[in-house]
């Protein structure tokens, strides 16, 4: 199982059409990009400090708009340009 100090309260895992794995950390207020085996963090895509997510509960990639859509517990979804 993948563990990282930037990932607390994992709520969602999503795989993009290109095979990128995105993970929500609801308690850590982060969206991470991890390798396809789930063993290593490749990047912190969004955090409360970098983009303002608050309690993310879902994440998905929209290939038509090239954006990451984040569902948040306390407010409406937000889009993060790639």
Structural class: mainly beta
Query: Could you describe the largest sheet, including whether it forms a barrel?
Result: 4 strands, antiparallel
How many domains make up the 3D coordinates? 1
Mean pLDDT: 84
Helix content: under 10%
Order of helices and strands: EEEEEEE
The share of residues in extended strands comes to over 45%
Shape: globular
Low-confidence stretches: none
**Spatial sequence of strands, sheet with the most strands:** 1-2-3-4
Distance between the termini: 27 Å
Count of DSSP strands: 7
Gyration radius, in Å = 11 Å
Helix count from the secondary structure assignment = 0
Description of the molecule:
It is a single chain. 0% of the residues lie in helices and 49% in strands. The chain has no helices and seven strands. It is mainly β. Strand 1 (10-15) and strand 2 form a beta hairpin. A four-stranded antiparallel β-sheet has the order 1-2-3-4, with no helix packed on it. It has strands at residues 10-15, 21-25, 30-34, 41-47, 56-62, 67-72, 78-81. It has one domain. 22% of the residues are buried.
What's the layout of helices and strands?
Layout lengths: L9 E6 L5 E5 L4 E5 L6 E7 L8 E7 L4 E6 L5 E4 L1
Antiparallel strand pairs: 1-2, 2-3, 3-4, 5-6, 6-7
Short description:
With 82 residues, the chain is mostly beta strands. Helix content is 0%, strand content 49%.
């Amino acid at each position: 199982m993948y563990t990282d100090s930037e990932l607390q309260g994992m709520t969602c895992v999503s795989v993009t059409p290109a095979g990128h794995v995105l993970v929500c950390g609801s308690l850590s207020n982060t969206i991470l990009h991890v390798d396809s085996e789930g063993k290593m963090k490749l990047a912190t895509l969004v955090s409360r400090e970098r983009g303002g997510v608050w309690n993310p509960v879902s994440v998905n990639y929209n290939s038509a708009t090239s954006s990451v859509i984040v569902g948040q517990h306390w407010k409406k979804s937000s889009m993060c340009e790639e």
